[in-house]
Design a protein that fits this description.
4-stranded antiparallel sheet, Aminopeptidase, alpha+beta
């Protein structure tokens, strides 16, 4: 198989979360010379494979084979790799079977390396992500197999292949505010405490508020209100409680304590509760580390452009890797059709991604 044959094979292996579509069994036959470890948990399939060439650093490629449901609006079968005008259409083409194909082929063809090469794959990145990469990393730590550096092949490029790598990710903090008032008849507002009226004067101070100024890696942390509701959908009863939900994609300069202090200052004098839940923590890998420098050099050599360092977007499994103090970076194809009907990526991008990873393996020290 060449890289595009492999890419199409992976696309035609249906693997909607938490299924792997038989991909892990296939890889155990496809990758010669690797030791395979299956770490399946609670219906989630996970695969770790490694090959020790010599003493030296351990470089790991990571990602997921699971995809979101196809949905409607496709012009072709979402689980048949359909080639048209230089693109391949199928669910998972960008997110992220292009990346998986690229590093699997690079690992298959490697002839030597100054250390250990490995891959870490899960079938639960698009789902709850509770029994996937998290469980594999815990296993690797227990068995002294944690890598020194990890490349997650999520789609990262923006307008042109090679224009962006992710050196970190923002965190994600979810908040729920409940303002307690006193329900009453709309004709007698003086006998009630209307929480809608209470929050109205300060809502503009909260909605869209920036909690820090950002830095060279991160955009400012901002409160994004996602839901507000109160009342009983009737015009003659003023509500007794208001519930407001929000999310903050936070940089390393904002944490839960800072958010709580900000909300306390805005809602001073009101009776309310605030619940905060952190689903992801921010991290950044220093640009001077070997993995960032070598990947950047490989991209320049293959693509002729220098990628920018980015932390934009949502979360990925890289957040779990970073918590172990491992240098982790993300690089993959252009991200413009993930989770959408007619998801696709170009053949040229997949071939170039494979070339970048091949050079990275050759040059990493």
């Amino acid at each position: 198989m060449n890289i595009i044959d492999l890419f199409k094979h992976l696309l035609e292996s249906p693997s909607v979360t938490p299924e792997d579509g038989g991909i892990f069994d296939f890889l155990e036959h496809y990758l010669e010379g690797f030791t395979f470890i299956r770490i399946d948990r609670e219906g989630v399939k996970n695969l770790f494979a490694y090959r020790r060439f010599s003493e030296g650093k351990h470089l790991c490629f990571a990602g997921h084979v699971d995809v979101v449901p196809a949905g409607e609006g496709w012009n072709s079968d979402p689980f048949v790799a359909t080639e048209k005008e230089g693109y391949v259409y199928a669910r998972g083409a960008q997110d992220m079977k292009s990346g998986v194909a690229a590093f699997v082929q690079a690992l298959k063809e490697v002839e030597g390396f100054g250390g250990t090469l490995s891959l870490l794959l899960t079938s639960d990145e698009e789902g709850p992500a509770k029994f996937g990469t998290v469980e594999v990393l815990a296993y690797l730590k227990e068995h002294n197999l944690l890598p020194d550096a990890v490349v997650v092949a999520e789609p990262t490029c923006e307008e042109r292949f090679g224009d962006a790598i992710k050196v970190g990710r923002r965190g994600s903090i979810n908040g729920v505010i409940e303002i307690i008032g006193k329900q009453g008849h709309a004709a007698y507002p003086e006998k009630a405490i209307n929480p809608v009226h209470q929050i109205a004067p300060v809502l503009a101070n909260i909605a869209g508020a920036f909690l820090d100024e950002g830095d060279e890696y991160f955009a400012p942390s901002q409160i994004v209100i996602t839901d507000i509701r109160a009342g009983m959908e009737t015009t003659n009863v003023s509500p007794g409680k208001l519930k407001m939900m929000f999310n903050v994609r936070n940089s390393t300069r904002t944490d839960q304590e800072k958010i709580r202090a900000f909300i306390d200052a805005q809602l001073c004098g009101m009776e309310y509760t605030l619940t905060l839940d952190q689903s992801a923590y921010p991290f950044v890998t220093d640009a001077s580390t070997p993995i960032v420098r070598t990947l950047r050099e490989s991209i320049v050599e293959v693509c002729g452009i220098t990628p920018k360092n980015s932390t934009a977007g949502g979360t990925s499994d890289a957040r779990f890797v970073a918590r172990y103090g491992i240098d982790v970076i993300e690089f993959g194809v252009i991200n413009d059709t993930i989770h959408a009907p007619n998801e696709r990526t170009s053949i040229a991008e997949v071939e170039k991604l494979y070339s970048v990873f091949t050079k990275l393996i050759h040059n990493f020290r």
